[in-house]
Structures are given as structure tokens and as C-alpha cells.
Amino acid sequence: MSGSLNPSSLARLLGEWNAGAAPAYRELADVVRLLVLDGRVPLGVALPSERSLAATLGISRTTVTAAYSLLREQGFLSSGQGSRGRTCIPQSGTPGDGQGAALSGAPGLVVPDGILDLAYASLPASGEVVHRAFAAALTELPALLPGFGYDALGVLPLRDAIARHYSAAGVPTTPQQILVTSGAQHALNIVLRTLAGRADKVLVEHPSYPNAIDAIRAAGCRLVPVPMPAAAPSGADPAARPGWDLAAFESALKQRPAMAYVVPDFHNPTGRLMPDSQRRRLVRAAAAAGTVLVVDETLRELNLDGMDSTPMAAFSPALVSLGSLSKSHWAGLRTGWIRAEESLIQRFAAARTTLDLGGPVVEQLAAAHLVNALAEPLPARLATLRDNRDGLLELLRGHLPDWETERPDGGLSVWCRLPAPISTALAVVAPDVGIRLAAGPRFGTGGAFEQYLRVPFTLPLEQLETAVLALRSAQDRLSASPQLRRTRSAPPAAAIA
Ligand SMILES: Cc1ncc(COP(=O)(O)O)c(C=O)c1O
Question: Any residues with Cβ below 6 Å from ligand 1, and which?
Fold first, then answer.
């Protein structure tokens, strides 16, 4: 957006801005900031000159100057030429916004001491799109304020948007089949609480998403790991994808687990996409065993090579799908959902109220806009991720030629086979070489995957190069000091996503 705002238009928008409760410059800055945040003053427009605004408002120029400097300090006004700064929103590290240090140290990017974080496979927000959605949500909020604000299912506009998204993908869905959650991890906990009792068996892929493994364990369930086939050797026909071992699934399902948790859409950590033929077979086997299939679709939008696949729910009305905006838009939204048959959704809603009483309303209204325009930020996001994936694979081949890598179909990470069982040792020495790692065993049970490491490609390419060089130096350090490989110390307690 460009252009400028004339003083009388701004005066009209400001309305009764001067309540006299605080110094005038602060009140003026506060109201302009609100106007920018709720979208009534668009981003990128030049505000009136100090002189003209002072004259129109009948206040001193010093007051306007002080208000504009405060807005600049807070990151809402660019420090362009002269006094005609343009409206903007604070970027990480905006000087004087008081949050710069915290933002630049956000987990998943560079932690405060300059360490590159490879334990998180997550991206920064698709900024402008998210900001616009919140501005629209603020304008819709007044209509909901007379209500109680508690809604265990989620606000209707968001459930409606999610239902339409599934229907458009070929899975007819009503809003009554959707429950909004604070992310997919919250969704899984609600499902576990409803469907899996203590000591019940829960089948998982092996490797699988660490926080899901932890949630299943914390629910007191018994994990039944089903091995994923090894990656095809490098040089093999790329069409020969390893996929899932359906015979192993069918055999494990004979134990009649209460639940099976799978990530068929760009599986975390391998990045594989389950072919439709396997989806059909898995759904059939779970139904025959009386096992509820819980399908985590958190990464479904990160389809890096535009591969065709049918949403799992198209193969059976009985399965439970989990979704999230964390990877398509931003994990900071903390918005996800459960899609299931209406009767199950009612049970999930009842179980949910033992955890919380509903999600925050403004976030849900904003999320409805994001789901309605789900495709908008994706092309740019996917293009960056494709470059990062290809760049990372090349860096790994160049600097760590004895690591075996599998080219992921999508998602956010490469699952690497190391030349020796050194994953935990690598994670322990990682901070010394400037990186943070999630060791392979976090992705499995019983100490498996000591010879594997997940390397996300979510950092910018130049940081990925630094990270791969750091991995190389960590490996060299272990080779030079073999006693380090036998480390019994656990890697530093690490949050993982
Ligand atoms: C497979 C999978 N499920 C769930 C999550 C967590 O999602 P959310 O942020 O929506 O809780 C992640 C995050 O990395 C994930 O990879």
C-alpha cells in the first residue's frame, strides 16, 4: 500500500482521541497505533506532516512530533525522509519496541546467545497475511462481545471455514463435524483423553513426531511402534519410494490397539507422503481391527512437489483428522482442529472442558480469514522451502558425504542416517559449535534412532550453511575424541516442534 493520509481524514478517524487521561502526545500515538492495528489506517501510507496535523487538530506541533517519535520507537511508523513517515508494524528487533531482544531470540530462529535452533521445524509467520486477518477479526469482534465468550466447539465462522475447506478437497463436512483447538498437539490430547484409557495400546509410526509420542506416553497408554521402511539407497530410482510398511501395520493391528496415530501427509520426520493405495489399505485394516485411526494432517499443506493425494478422511467417515495452521501460517496462532463424525465431536467437546473451556475468540476470528484464504501465502512459502530443501541436501552431500539422506516429498525436515550411532553425542556437543539439535531417539521408543538425525530446512539458506558446517565440526570433534561418543549425559532439555 502507498499513498498518504490527509490531516482531515486522520482527524475524522481519530475521533475523540484526547481523553485527558495521559499526556496528549501519548494519547495521540495510542489511538493512531490502534487505527493501524485494526486496519482502519492501512500499512504503508504516509501520515500527515506534523505541521498540518497540529493545525487540523488544534494542538501544538511539539505534541504531534512527540507522538510520531513514540510511534517510530514502537515500530508503527517508518523513519523515512523528513516528518512523513509511513505506517508499518513492528519487525523483530525494531529499535525501542522493548520486545526486540525477545523477538530476535524467538525459539525456532536464533536463540539469544546466537545459537542456531535445529530442534524446531517451524517457520516465521506469513506476516502480512496474518496481520491483515487480525485487523479484520478486530472489526468483527464487537458482534460477539454480548455473548459469554465460552465455546467448547469453537466460533462458527471458523468451524464453517474449516468444514468448507474439507468439502472443497472432496470430503463433505459440516461445521458440526469440527472442533477448534489450540493447535494439533492440543487436539491429540483431547482425542487421547476421549478414546484411549490407561494401558490401552496406541499404534504409532516409528519414527514419529516426538510430542505425539510424549502425549501418548503421558496418557498412560502403551506405544506400539510400527517401523517405517528404510530410505531407498542413494542412486535408486526416485520413483521407488519407500512409503509405509502396510504388512507391518496389518500385523500390529492384530493386537487390536485402541488407537493408531499416523502422519501420512509429509510425515514428521521423514517428509514422506503416503500413496492413496496405502491409505485405502490402512483405513481398511484399522476398521477391521476396531482401531480408531487418528490422522495428523498438520503438514498437509507443505506439498513441496505438488504431488496428488486424497485426504485420508475421504476413505472412511469413521476416522479422526487433526489439522493446524501452525505450518501453513504460524505456530504462534495456536489454532488447530479436529474433524470427525458429529457424535464423536460431541464427546471430544465434553472431554475438552476438563482441559480448557474454549479458545480465544479474536484468534479464531482471524483464523477463519486465514482458512478462507489458505492458499494465499503458500506459493511463496513453498518456493522458499523447496530452495531450502534442495540447498540443505546439497550442503549435506558436500560437507557430510557419509550421511545418507532421503529427499522429502514435503514437510520441513530431512531425516538423515548417520555413519555411526552418534545422534545423542552430537546433540550434547551441538551448543559448543553454535547449534541446538533434537537427537534421533526423541523420535522413537526404547532408544531407537541413535543413528538418525532430523535436520529441518526452515532456517534461511545462509544459516543452513552455517548449521551444516557446525554439524561437520561436531562430527569431527566426536571422531577426534571417541570418548565423547559414549556420553551418558542427556542432551540439554530441548523443546521440539
Ligand atoms: C506432525 C505434527 N503434529 C503436530 C504438531 C504440532 O502442531 P501445533 O503447533 O498445531 O500444536 C507438529 C509440529 O511440528 C507436527 O509436526
Answer: 121, 183-185, 209, 263, 268, 296, 298-299, 324, 326, 331, 336, 497
Q: Quick check: 298 pLDDT over 90?
A: yes
Decide if 291 contacts 256 (C-beta within 8 A).
yes
Cβ 205 vs Cβ 448: under 8 Å: no
DSSP string for residues in 255-300: T--SEEEE--BS-TTT--B--HHHHHHHHHHHHHHTPEEEEE-TTT
Q: With 60 as the cut, is the pLDDT of residue 492 above it?
A: no
Supply the residue whose CA is at minimum distance from atom 3 of ligand 1: 298
Domains along the chain? Answer: 7-100 (1.10.10.10), 116-124+377-486 (3.90.1150.10), 129-372 (3.40.640.10)
Q: How confident is the model at residue 49 (pLDDT cuts 50, 70, 90)?
A: very high
pLDDT tens digits for 189-242?
A: 999 999 999 999 999 999 999 999 999 999 999 999 999 999 876 666 666 788
Contact between 114 and 137 (Cβ < 8 Å): no
**Residue 68 and residue 85 in contact, taking contact as beta carbons nearer than 8 Å:** yes
Q: Ligand 1 pocket: which of 326, 363, 454 to mutate (most atoms <8 Å of CB)?
A: 326
User: What integer pLDDT is reported at residue 493 of this predicted model?
Assistant: 55
Q: Write out the three cell numbers for 485.
A: 561418543
Name the residue with the closest Cα to ligand 1, atom 2: 298
Average pLDDT on 348-358 reads 95
Residues 127/146, Cβ–Cβ less than 8 Å: no
Distance 145 CA to ligand 1 centre (A): 31
Taking the centre of ligand 1 as the mean of its atom positions, its distance from the CA of residue 299, in whole angstroms, is: 8
